[in-house]
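Thread: DUF2127 domain-containing protein, structure

OP (GT): Posting the sequence first so everyone is looking at the same thing. Length is 160 residues per the record. Can we get the structure tokens written out before standup tomorrow? I want them in the notebook alongside the other entries.
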Amino acid sequence: MEYQEGASNQQPPSPEEKQIEEKLKNEQQFKSGAGWFFWIAGLSLINSIIMLAGKNWAFIVGLGITQIIDSVALHLGEAFFYKLIAFVFDLIAAGIFIVFGVFARKGHRWSFIIGMILYALDGLLFILVADYLSIGFHALVLFFLYSGLSALKKIKLRRE
């Protein structure tokens, strides 16, 4: 319940209520930030399926490395074997981000940090092809991941 000046029947929030509101806000921000690792992994795999099926569009939040893997496979030939090998590598790349998500949700800072570094490096791949929309979206997702890490730090400070 938020205090509104001029409201006749509302009391200003107590310090305990403010702490509870802050705690809930931080927990939501932390979970949301950690959840982005799952979105990255999932949309990257969807992108790979679309690309390997011969379609010509993708989600901008996906990993650049999986797009490179898929492009190499398609340039090697249309054989199912190449697509299968590419998809196995795509699963490994996505799986790494799923692992980061699992550990981030458990409150491991290292998972956020290493995951953000890898995602930033992945974003640099889009510079090679001048895909500025994907670069911008990578930056936005990095901001959300950082917000999750920042909220985790606040949560851990309150516990100490």
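GT: Both are above now. Quick notes for whoever picks this up: The chain has a mean pLDDT of 90. The chain has one domain: 24-159.
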